[in-house]
Design goal:
The complex is a heterodimer of chains A (about 100) and B (about 675). Chain A starts with 5 loop residues before the first helix and ends in a 13-residue tail after the last helix. Chain A has helices spanning about 5-25, 30-55, 60-90. Chain A has one domain (about 5-100): Helix Hairpins, CATH 1.10.287. In chain A, α1 packs antiparallel against α2. Helix content of chain A is about 75%, strand content about 0%. The model of chain A has no long low-confidence stretch (mean pLDDT about 90). Chain A has 3 helices and no strands. Chain A has about 100 residues and is mostly helical. Chain B has about 675 residues and is mainly alpha-helical. Chain B has 25 helices and 6 strands. Chain B has helices spanning about 1-30, 35-50, 60-85, 120-140, 150-165, 170-190, 195-225, 230-240, 255-270, 280-285, 290-300, 305-310, 315, 320-340, 345-365, 375-405, 425-435, 445-460, 460-485, 500-515, 545-560, 565-575, 575-580, 585-635, 640-660, and strands spanning about 85, 90, 95-105, 110-115, 250, 255. Chain B has a two-stranded antiparallel sheet with strand order 1-2. Residues about 1-20 of chain B have low confidence and may be disordered. Classes of the chains: A mainly alpha (about 100), B mainly alpha (about 675). At the A-B interface, α1 of A face α25 of B.
Chain lengths: ~100, ~675
């Protein structure tokens, strides 16, 4: 149990981060973009927990940060979904390309 | 106690002298600024309100303001010449007012000031007096004009500028007023702006004099650079002192900086005074109203060049080369203009060429003059001729104005036999003609006599040419006189009046001045160093000029008194010479050739090509490149958050690579 090296876990979080990035760049659907952002945030959470655990086991700072981020992510998801619902009501679509009236 | 008693009188004396000096300045400075400022006030008031509120009365307002100026100028002259101008028998220049307007360095500054010395006081009187006469004359002549108020406003502006010019203490002050005079001359020549010839003439006058003023400006800068001052008095002192001997040493093309500077200043003067070869604007300037010609192009502005040379005369005497240029230019102008005047048929043009010829006289009189004592006769004579010429030439122009007012034509062939219809004009015109022809006892005789005497003593060739020219002067003036007033007994169908009282009065006043002005012992008041100069009236010497004058008159009488075929035959007999003189020696054509063919083709067109293709091309190229680049990069700012995050992410990756791997 204690023999999982730190690089393995960092590999997971990096992979999660780039998967999130890729999703953010390629998707045009707002909900999937929101999910991608959640993936990025979670990769950061893993980083915090891992570094806390491996470098400073007697401290709790990293874990606090993770709890903060989970809280804020929840709030952010609520707001984002409210925006998405409103967008859907007015445009009948949640594709970002369709909401381009303010461009230029 | 004893000590104090010994010292006291000395202190009291110095205080007394200082107080006297100060009160003298104070008494002048209290009213002299009014002389130029009243016409300026007239210009401002009539220029702004003249067309709306004072349509009828603007003439009266302008004339009244100038009357006050004239009275003040006469009072100043009386004060200066007879009360307190003299210190120990020498007329001293008095600086009544002086304050620094723009300071460049400790020594070099542009000051605005008023200086009183014999020539500036004389010019004050001449300018205000002639201007007043012209104002009064114009009340009748310009009556009913659409822009009556504007006309008087311009006259006020001109009078202000000319007065400012003559009282200048500073070389740059002269230059400022010099340009103002040029502007008001331009405005007045182009007064009838709906006439294309008047517009062309005003443009020509402005461009030619501007061209000459460029020389003047460079000359001022050279003098100020070497003399370390712009103040005329300091400049003269500096250049005379031994510390500044670099200016007289040879510098450029073997000619000293002083000569260069003075010659360039003289070019400015020659442009304003219509000296050969910059005279071409003056005959065309006759397109302006005739009273304006009398004021600007006969009596005051055109003598500004003479005045400038006289003002800087202590410098000119240091440079014989510059003086000989002045002599040559003056002499050529005098002779050339007199010859052309014999052939012209437009009466105002005859008078214009006559003006040019007489100014040529003044110029060469300055050119041959020395500085000390008896040698300074030419200077006095020149100023004397300026003084008398102002009266008789403005009289001639106003007389011509009265004739034109009646006939509505400038051409000699439309005139003749007018002596019965306009007796006062006839008599006054005759007086002026006799004066300019140099017949005693009229004013022109005395001044021309002095010029000829000065010429005789310095250079026999100059004397000979001047004598011949004075014969020619008599001939063309009486050709004019006989053509207007005699020749044929024409019956005028419509009975015009001779003119209003306001037109006759100035003629009579000026005629009286023309008779009297010559009797003033001018040398006593105006001379090079302020010392009185005895006049050398020599009846034997004056035989030759008077004989030439009478010969000219008789010849004109023989040819023009009655209508005969003689002038025709003589002009045919002279052939090419007559034609050349009639065409003004093709000088206008030469200028046209130089400007149109040479300057336009060799300088103007390449310059235009460079402007269109190189200058504009560069600008267009820059604009085109900017447009292209912006079109290329405007897609970047798309408003798509995803692409922004992509750029952001790309930037972070790039930075990470730089800092982790390249930045070692």
């Amino acid at each position: 149990m204690s023999d999982i090296p730190i690089s393995h876990i960092l590999f997971v979080s990096t992979a999660l981060f780039f998967i999130g990035m890729y999703g953010l760049f390629t998707r045009r659907n707002l909900i999937t973009m929101l999910m991608s952002i959640e993936l990025i945030l979670n990769s950061v959470n893993i980083n915090f927990v891992v570094f806390n655990k491996y470098l400073y086991p007697e401290k709790l700072d990293g874990i606090f940060f993770t709890i903060f981020i989970i809280t804020i992510a929840a709030a952010e998801a609520a707001i984002a979904i409210a925006i998405i619902i409103n967008l859907y009501r007015s445009h009948r679509s949640i594709d970002v390309e369709d909401a381009s009236e303010m461009k230029y | 106690m004893g000590y104090r008693r010994r010292k006291q009188p000395q202190i009291v004396l110095t205080i007394y002298i200082k107080r006297e000096d100060r009160t003298k300045k104070m008494s002048y400075s209290s009213y002299i600024p009014l002389i130029p400022l009243l016409p300026l006030a007239g210009f401002v008031v009539l220029g702004i309100f003249g067309r709306k509120y004072f349509k009828r009365s603007s003439g009266i307002i302008g004339t009244f303001l100038l009357l006050v100026s004239t009275v003040l100028a006469l009072y100043t002259a009386y004060q200066y010449f007879f009360v307190d101008g003299k210190v120990d028998g020498v007329y001293q220049p008095i600086t009544a007012i002086k304050y620094t307007w723009l300071s460049f360095s400790k020594n070099v500054s542009i000051d605005m000031g008023i200086v009183l010395d014999p020539i500036s006081v004389m010019m004050l009187v001449v300018v205000t007096f002639v201007s007043l006469m012209v104002h009064i004359f114009s009340l009748g002549y310009m009556k009913g004009e659409e822009r009556f108020g504007t006309y008087y406003a311009f006259l006020g502006l001109f009078t202000f500028s000319m007065l400012g010019l003559v009282i200048s203490t500073n070389l740059f002050q002269i230059y400022i007023f010099w340009e103002l005079v040029g502007v008001s001359s331009y405005l007045l020549i182009g007064y009838y702006y709906d006439k294309p010839s008047a517009v062309a003439a005003s443009k020509k006058a402005f461009i030619v004099t501007r061209f000459a003023d460029l020389g003047f400006l460079i000359g001022i800068l050279i003098l100020a650079f070497y003399g370390k001052s712009l103040d005329i008095k300091t400049l003269i002192e500096n250049i005379n002192s031994s510390e500044f001997n670099t200016i007289t040493a040879a510098s450029l093309l073997g000619i000293s900086a002083l000569t260069w500077g003075l010659t360039l200043v003289f070019i400015g003067g020659a442009g304003k005074s219509a000296m050969f070869p910059l005279h071409i604007w003056l005959p065309d300037a006759m397109e302006g109203p005739t009273p304006v010609s009398a004021l600007i192009h006969a009596a005051t502005m055109v003598v500004a060049g003479v005045y400038l040379v006289a003002r800087l005369f202590p410098l000119f005497t240091l440079s014989p080369a510059a003086l000989s240029i002045i002599t040559f230019v003056g002499l050529v102008s005098a002779l050339l203009a007199a010859i052309i005047a014999c052939t012209q048929t437009d009466i105002k043009r005859v008078l214009a060429y006559s003006t040019m010829s007489q100014i040529g006289y003044m110029m060469f009189a300055l050119g041959i003059s020395g500085y000390d004592g008896e040698g300074g006769l030419g200077y006095t004579a020149s100023m004397f001729h300026l003084f008398t010429h102002a009266f008789f030439k403005s009289l001639l122009f106003l007389g011509a104005g009265a004739v034109i007012h009646m006939i509505h034509s400038n051409e000699m062939k439309d005139m003749g036999g007018l002596r019965k219809y306009m007796p006062i004009t006839h008599i006054t015109f005759l007086v002026a003609c006799l004066a300019i022809a140099g017949i005693p006892p009229f004013a022109g005789f005395f001044s021309k006599e002095e010029i000829l005497l000065a010429a005789y003593h310095s250079n026999k060739l100059v004397y000979a040419v001047a004598l011949f020219t004075s014969g020619l002067t008599a001939f063309y003036m009486f050709r004019l006189y006989f053509s207007i007033f005699w020749r044929k007994n024409k019956q005028l169908h419509d009975h015009h009046q001779e003119g209003t009282v306001s037109m006759k009065l100035p003629l009579i006043i000026l005629a009286i001045c023309t008779v009297v002005a010559g009797l003033i012992p001018f040398g006593k008041y105006v001379s090079t160093r302020g010392l009185p100069l005895e006049s050398h009236f020599d009846p034997v010497f004056s035989l030759a000029p008077v004989a030439f004058g009478i010969a000219g008159i008789l010849l004109a009488m023989w040819m023009y008194k009655n209508e005969t075929a003689r002038p025709e035959r003589i002009s045919v007999g002279l052939g090419g010479i007559y034609k050349a003189a009639y065409r003004k020696f093709y000088i206008d054509e030469i200028y046209m050739f130089i400007t149109k063919k040479i300057i336009f083709n060799l300088v103007g067109r390449p310059a235009a090509w460079i402007d269109r293709n190189v200058v504009d091309g560069t600008m267009n190229g820059i604009a085109w490149t900017t447009g292209k680049i912006s079109a290329m990069i405007k897609g970047v700012q798309s408003g798509k958050v995803q692409s922004y995050t992509l750029y952001f992410f790309g930037g972070i990756i790039a930075l990470a690579i730089i800092f982790l791997y390249l930045w070692k």
